[in-house]
Design a protein that fits this description.
Blueprint lengths: L12 H9 L4 E5 L3 H9 L4 E4 L3 H4 L11 H13 L5 E5 L8 H14 L3 E5 L5 H9 L4 E6 L5 H4 L9 H17 L3 E5 L3 H10 L4 E4 L7 E5 H4 L14 H4 L2 H14 L11
Parallel strand pairs: 1-2, 1-8, 2-3, 3-4, 4-5, 5-6, 6-7, 7-8
Bound molecules: 3-methyl-2-oxobutanoic acid (KIV).
């Protein structure tokens, strides 16, 4: 019998764990459409993320909070149509996973649209949800540090985990979400030494953005990577400037992640 999946991939959660064991870095690009997704596949980018950052980049809002499940399903399906090789992670938008039951129903919609994994922002409070999702066959990427859906609670987009006490809260959360069954962890805007410690402590791979060079992988938002963002964040880099084309920019990003050239100290926080 031949099985056909909703959406094929050559990169799986096992591939990423093996990369971590082999100390082989990998890349992720947050993107929203079939064409950039196809370019990511051509350039062998291991993972693509349909980020709720589309609230800002595509929709023109000031935050990710207005993004709905309907938007995420639409963009996840578009990204899935362009790509048969990268592992596709889809963001669960604001308030789409506030209870385990709600998370189950909404994660199923993203998987049916083509996602291989769903991403949720938060720590200890998500343990039960992560366990229930993974027990039902849906891999989870957790997200700690600057979790943009909590921008109002943080009082702005600020580096998180500075100082021993705050750093320890994030480290303990990371351990809890791994124990709950998460397969990946995004660390956003945390000091480089904290990201290093978490990466060394966990068996699951970490993906950093503004978290320094010691994470197992790096993610950038496509709009930052190709210089569309008017005021790009400190941790991003315009790879199109030197590369000259979008495929070459994706390749340069991937090459520099793998060689350890990106991110350097100027893209990191201490
Ligand atoms: O929404 C997004 O694009 C993200 C990345 C910045 C990690 O969550």
């Amino acid at each position: 019998m031949t099985y056909t999946t909703t959406h094929k991939t050559t990169v799986t959660t096992n591939t990423l764990r093996q990369h971590k064991k082999n100390q082989q870095r990998f890349s992720c690009i947050s993107l929203y459409d079939a064409q950039t997704s196809a370019i990511a596949a051509q350039q062998d980018i291991e993972t693509v993320l349909v980020g709720d950052s589309l609230g800002m980049t595509i929709q023109g809002h000031g935050s990710t909070l207005p993004v709905t499940m309907e938007h995420m399903v639409y963009h996840t399906a578009a990204v899935a149509r362009g790509n048969n090789t990268s592992l596709l992670i889809a963001d669960m938008p604001f308030m789409s996973y506030s209870t385990p039951e709600q998370a189950m129903a909404n994660a199923a919609l993203l998987v049916q649209a083509g996602a291989h994994m769903v991403k949720l922002e938060g720590g200890a409070w998500l343990q039960e949800t992560i366990t229930q999702l993974t027990e039902r066959g849906i891999p989870v990427c957790a997200h700690l540090g600057l979790t943009p859906q909590s921008v109002n609670k943080f009082g702005g987009y600020k580096v998180q985990g500075r100082g021993d006490e705050q750093a320890d809260i994030i480290l303990q959360d990371a351990k809890r979400i791994e124990a709950a069954g998460a397969d990946l962890l995004v660390l956003e805007c945390v000091p480089r030494p904290l990201a290093k410690k978490i990466t060394e402590t966990l068996a699951i791979p970490t993906i950093g953005i503004g978290a320094g060079k010691h994470t197992d992988a790096q993610v950038l938002v496509v709009n930052d990577l190709i210089g569309l963002t008017e005021k790009p964040p400190k941790f991003s880099k315009n790879f199109l400037n030197e590369a000259g084309s979008i495929p070459a920019a994706f390749k340069a990003f991937d090459d520099q992640v793998k060689s350890g050239e990106f991110p350097d100290e100027s893209h990191s926080f201490t």
